[in-house]
Amino acid sequence: MPRRHPVFATLTAIGLACLIRVATLADEPKKTPPTKEQIAQWVRDLGDDDFERRQEATKRLWEAGKAAEGALREAAKNPDPEVQRRSREVLDKFKWGVYPDTPEKIVNLIREYQGVEKPDVKLESIRKFLDEGAAGCAALGNILQAEDNVVIRQAVLKQVEKETGRALPRLFATGDYASLDSLLEVCVQSAPDQHLHNYAAFCLVSGRLDDRIKFYKDQLGTETKLPVDKILAHLLRVKGDFAEALKVAGKDEKLKMRILYQQRDWKGLAQLKLTEPADETTRLILQATFNRLAGNADDAKTMFDDLGKRAASSDPNTSRMLRMRLSRAYFLNDRVTDAMTSLDGEADVTFKASLLAVQLRYDDAFELLKDNIEKQKTPEGKVRLELQRARLYLQVGEKDKAVKIFESLADEIKAPANPQQRLLWPVDLVRTELRAGLKDLARDHCVKSITLLDKASAKLLLKEFYPQESDAAYIWWVLVRNKADDKRDTAEKWKQVQVIMEGKADDLTKWREALETDITEDPIETFLALAHACQAAGLKKEAQGYLEKACAKSDHPALPNVKLGDFFAVEQKWDKAADAYRQAAEHDGADPLPLYLQGRALIKAGKTDEGKKLTELSHWVPLANDDKRFQFEQELTRRGFAKDARGERELVLKVDDSASVYTSIALEREANEALAKKEYLTAADYFEASMLRVLEPGTIFTDPSAYFLQPQRVHRYRARGLLDQGKIDAALKEAGYCLDNFSGDIELPILMTAGLEKNGRKKDAERIYTKVHDTMAKVCEQYPQSGWGHNSVGWLCAVCRRDLEEGLKHAQKAMDLSPDNTGYLDTLAELNFQMGKKDKALELMRKCVELEPKRSYFRRQLARMEKGDPDVPVELEVRVGEDSDE
């Protein structure tokens, strides 16, 4: 994805860390400000013959503070050198933020910063400023304005970016926003766009949006250094008042584009002359896409045709990127034939092979891969094609052929001839085998390759077996591998690591002692590895001790403290959990998760008000940083806090007007939420907006098949949504596109047949069902070992309540091929239920629940079947998060 310029991100951090300034001396009686006459007299006294008088005047002018700045600037132009010198001395203090009411500690820090020349020494003071809270952050703002050395200033900016996160929660908690306006002058001049995104986010989460909108509306037309119109447009955009935001944006085409994009106003976008992104090809593709979505089909066609001619007429070397970008755009704009044609000759044949396979053109995909394997110039290129060929064999049920490829590739695992070259492809091999359910084969090939991998690659390999604890697994692997008196082969050593990680090692005490006395890897990771092993073995006291050691060893113990907090949370020792999370938050204030977890723990401990305040505050911390907010949302989802994770997605969509990958993911998850509510048109709109983000630079679908399946999904759900509204002909038009594009889409008849029959369109329902059924039946005939193919026909028959006997045969065949596949069990259960065999259906569904007890869909299916009415429609599964009690 496109990365922000580091200076932009830094200035953002500074600006928003300094949003709050303590009102100094607020409780002291205010001194009467000096009059203009007094200031003028003191300025004249700067040139007096009497030294004491000059000293007193200098002191008085400094004590006058901002009131004297104008007069001092004029005095600095005085021909008298003494007046110039003294005026500039006072102005220099003001420049660096040294005023009479500046706390003495801050003044000392500023002088410390000024007193050293080396940048690295200056940088050491940044954390000290941040530790002083709002006053320190305000001082940093002044330093950034005052520092004239560009190199040092950039270094300070980077250091502030690194350190500011620690101060954010503490600053936000004060609720004093008095310094915001003065601070904007610094940030907006240097990084207006990103700072304004953060400022708008801050106003939103802090509940100040309406107040700030009114304030900046009043500022329109006044003299100010600030881009008031931009600030106001962003605030209105975040509020969702797009019409007013567009008015305020005026002629700023870039800002208008983002506002229109955020509200998905395709007609408005089609009328714009795009000025971004910088890449011309992307702009032309977006312009054509916006015209298609706006209903300007002829204009869109002309634009895409022109792009195609440009790609065809250009030099092959220079037009490679254009052809690649255009092929992806064709897929997302319903031009599949053009897209597939444009892939001819593309160097990466894996992309085209994936697209052929997803269209059920397996023979063409196999032939393409076979023709290109021997043409590969590198072993890695050959492996990539062989692995894809194996994956396709698995899809069509030819497991033996896939295994043969895996074993052949494993025979090629050996140390690179060049010691500097990283060996990575065995990780892909093992990953593919695991996802195919070939656990024993994956284990064998892991054992064969792990001794040849460097540390980073070995951790990637171990992550496939231990997604959350790969670091711990690596620590144990290194110990077991290197143990001098252990003569076992690599396979036996791997088994030893497994039993340690799973808490089943009878001799764990021996291994713990060995690891503690010979710490060769990172000490923190080592203690965390020891804690994991003890926790897995049920040795709670020992696990706690190792976690505490990890916290004590680290200079930045955020991760160890989170793990310690998690440990106490499992034990329901909520006060201790809250304290551990608190320490993590203090060491990494830029990460909202520890703050959130601290709040949750406090709520569990009965400190509800304090806990709720912290959980609310945690949602403020990422501001408009879509990366941090996405990671936060991911972790909340993983931990079972679905409601709060959903809130993070909503904030991403309100705040972020960019084409980032995180916005795309958030839109897709919103689409799934809409599907769960059967809001099909809303889901289609979200899916469409999500996939269009891929047209912009830096964002791609990691799975090539998505370029084909995403548009299919949009048309499919739009067809169902229109059907629900009674717009039958429009619904059939969308369904017609789906059938022409991909006649193997079993979800289409599942969504459409019942509604069409209800609306008296039985022939249309039968036509759609029959075309899809016949397509998938042909796949089963061509690839009789394809469990996926047989299950698809079985599920289609079951949910559409047609050809149940035939469906039962296909479902049973799928089960014979993969007896413990819960998806296949579910299909067989549904067919039995529809055929009146309730007892058999319940038996099968109970097995599903037994195999996957956490999957709520199976529990709901079981409850439906227990009620005994097969006419109640199947509740189609949509994977959305569910809230946890813990």
Which features does this protein show?
886 residues, 51 helices, 71% helix, globular, disordered C terminus
Low-confidence stretches: 1-29, 179-183, 881-886
- Let me know the average pLDDT: 86
Q: Determine Rg (CA atoms, Å).
A: 33 Å
Number of strands: 0
Number of helices: 51
- The residue fraction in helices comes out at over 70%
Shape: globular
Which percent range describes the beta-strand content?
under 5%
The secondary structure category is: mainly alpha
N- to C-terminal distance: 34 Å
Q: Can you summarize the main beta sheet? A: none
Explain this structure to me?
This protein has 886 residues and is mainly alpha-helical. The relative contact order is 0.05. The N terminus and C terminus are likely disordered.
Task: Write a brief caption for the model.
Helices cover 71% and strands 0% of the residues.
What topology emerges from the helices and strands here?
Blueprint: H1 6-17, H2 36-45, H3 51-64, H4 69-75, H5 81-95, H6 104-114, H7 119-123, H8 126-131, H9 133-146, H10 150-163, H11 168-174, H12 180-190, H13 192-205, H14 209-219, H15 228-239, H16 242-249, H17 253-262, H18 266-271, H19 280-293, H20 297-313, H21 320-332, H22 336-342, H23 349-358, H24 362-373, H25 379-395, H26 399-410, H27 425-435, H28 439-450, H29 455-465, H30 470-482, H31 490-501, H32 508-517, H33 523-536, H34 540-553, H35 558-570, H36 574-587, H37 592-604, H38 608-618, H39 626-638, H40 642-655, H41 661-676, H42 680-692, H43 706-724, H44 728-741, H45 747-758, H46 762-782, H47 787-800, H48 804-817, H49 822-834, H50 838-851, H51 856-867
Helix pairs in contact: 1-10, 1-12, 1-13, 2-3, 4-5, 12-13, 13-15, 14-15, 15-16, 16-17, 19-20, 19-21, 20-21, 21-22, 23-24, 23-25, 24-25, 25-26, 25-27, 26-28, 27-28, 27-29, 29-30, 30-31, 30-33, 32-33, 33-34, 34-35, 35-36, 35-37, 36-37, 37-38, 39-40, 40-41, 41-42, 42-43, 43-44, 43-45, 45-46, 46-47, ...
